[in-house]
Amino acid sequence: MDDAMDDDIRALYQEVILDHGKNPRNFRHPDDAPLEAHGNNPLCGDKLTVYVRLGEGDTIEDAAFEGRGCAISIASASMMTGILRGKTVAEMERLFGAFHTMCTGEGEIDAAAGREFEDDIDKLRVLSGVKQFPMRVKCATLAWHTVNAAILGEQGASTE
Amino acid sequence: MTMTTAINENIDPKASERANFYDVEAIRADFPAMQVEVNGHPLTFLDSGASAQKPVQVLERMDQAYREEYANVHRGAYRLSELATDNYENARATVARFMNAASADEIIFTRNATAAVNLVASSWGRKNLSAGDEVVISHMEHHANIVPWQMLRDEIGIVIKIAPVDDDGNFLTDEFAALLGEKTKLVSITQTSNVLGTMTPIKEIARLAHEAGALAMFDGAQGIVHAGIDVQDVDADFYVFTGHKLYGPTGIGVLYGKRDILKDMPPYQGGGDMIEMVTFEKTTYREPPARFEAGTPPIIEAIGLAAAIDYVTGIGQDAIAGHEVELLNHATAALSQIDGLTIIGQARQKCAIVSFTIEGVHPHDIGTIIDARGVAIRAGHHCAQPLMDRFGLAATARASFGMYNKKEDVDVLVDALLYAKEIFA
Q1: Fewest 10 Å CB contacts: which of A87, A142, B233, B368?
Q2: Is the pLDDT of residue A159 over 90?
Q3: What pLDDT does residue B147 have?
Q4: Domains along chain A?
Q5: Residue of A80, A84, A65, A76 lying closest to A17 (CA atoms)
Q6: Do residues B49 and B378 lie in contact, with contact meaning Cβ atoms separated by under 8 Å?
Q7: Model ipTM?
């Protein structure tokens, strides 16, 4: 029964994603994270809380999360929190832009961002399988919208 | 005619006998969607609880009405407008017969079931409820039967009470009865849970509500499809349902209300068609149902709904219910065989809606993966978040069956779920 659709499904649910989905990294509520935001996807009921601590020069010193959701949203939050540590807020925003482009499959990733975050983009590329599943793009980007909201001080993020 | 009894326990022993004469292939041939392919697989449509597919009889009737019988209603002094008006009012009569309403004047066409609940809350509620008055709903309600009452609570200070369900999803009638008292003005309960499939004892609920001096309203969005309704037998004061789940078009819903109650209700929206006389000083309103149908109504949709009702009654609601018992029993048995799968909602009285979770696979992922095999189910909170919270879940997967589903659909679902499990293994 292997058909093209099965290949898309396998591309969406790669080992790395399943592993992050089952054993999410940075899945905790830090004692000293002054910034947080709740993200939810009203469509499916996924809920995440992302915690952030900023240091000097707007550098993300710690990023963690809690919540529940599908394999894609949990894996994305797990990978994102690892990747963001040590980045500045401005870098986070540029990387989010590149990631968003990758997930929607609309247009090309900005060349400068592609060079700047080559390794990170390579890692995040496992999530780009969502571009074949428009309903699931929101799952992959929920954590990023939420961390954005946490840092910008918005109350919460919603992908709808 | 209508079945208000449970169907999964075969309380009606002839149900499976009748199902033997049920020609599901002939029915499938009437539904163009049954021929659709999705992702290279034949569509296995198990989301009728969200919205049902439509038979050609409905599509062709609507097409014909648009092509050959179309004009605005209640207006023109010409033949075509008379014909459209007749069609529209005959649709109302068809709905009235289907529900066994005492009169077609008790049938108000709305946009959907949600609009019908809002009509009652806005018109009847604002006139008859004041601070401290109580409205009793159940833990199983769809957001459409929660939020309008919360809006009234915030506006005028009514109190909302919640009738509980047990862990299997049974409606707890004694606990419900204990909530009723002098301050209870309205009981508004679903006939069938869209998540658990639970059928509530509507006749008993109405009796208890009336005993307490309250009105009884039922959300029949799911219930009318699976069990039908006899509003006089149940003694419902209000009953709402929607056309698109009953194999009819979108954009048409129904509010049934007892004539005496409707007569005392103020208009919901103002506009054309609902007035007797308008001057800039004063306007007088027409009698129900016209009073509640401001503006050009969903004419073709009403005609389509009547065609859907004719189709359903032509097959026979008992026969459909009997077929659905078989599907429910088969699905319950087959799904229970899957390791790690838990069925949410095992009420004694249940219709062909099966919610479930699979350990280690989120419902949303299940939905995406089995769609690759052409299987359409619903994944999420089903617009019933308080019920999800009650069961400690953020989401479930839900297979809901319709008259065109066959036992093989269950087998395709099971195979697809095993595939999902394999990916997550």
Answers
A1: B233
A2: no
A3: 97
A4: 4-158 (3.90.1010.10)
A5: A76
A6: yes
A7: 0.89
The token duo for B62 is: 């609507």
- Decide if pLDDT at B155 tops 90: yes
Task: State residue B394's pLDDT score.
Answer: 87
Architecture of domain B59-313: 3-Layer(aba) Sandwich (3.40)
Nearest to B372 among A9, A44, A45 (CB): A9
Distance (Å, rounded) from C-alpha A83 to C-alpha A119?
10
Give CA–CA dist A48/A30, Å, rounded: 14
Top-ranked range on mean pLDDT: pick from A29-43, B69-83, B159-173: B159-173
Per CATH, domain B15-51+316-424 is 3.90.1150.10: yes
Per the DSSP assignment, residues forming a β-bridge with B42 are B37
pTM over 0.90: yes
B380 touches chain A (CB under 8 A): yes
Comma-separated ranges of CATH 3.40.640.10 domains in chain B: 59-313
Chain B residues within 8 A of A136 when measuring between CB atoms: 364, 368
Confidence of residue A152 (pLDDT cuts 50, 70, 90): confident
- B304-346 pLDDT, tens digit each: 999 999 999 999 999 999 999 999 999 999 999 999 999 999 9
Taking the CA of residue B379 and the nearest CA in chain A, the distance in Å comes to 7
The residue from B117, B229, B383, B397 that is catalytic is B383
Distance, CA of B52 to CA of B47 (rounded, Å): 7
Q: Check if B383 is active-site.
A: yes
Angle between helices B407-424 and B317-336 (to 10 degrees): 30
Residue of A nearest to B380 (CA): A44
CB contact under 8 Å between A5 and B39, yes or no, is: yes
| Residue ranges of chain B assigned to CATH 3.90.1150.10 | 15-51+316-424
Instruction: State the Cα–Cα distance between residues A49 and B134, nearest whole angstrom.
Output: 36
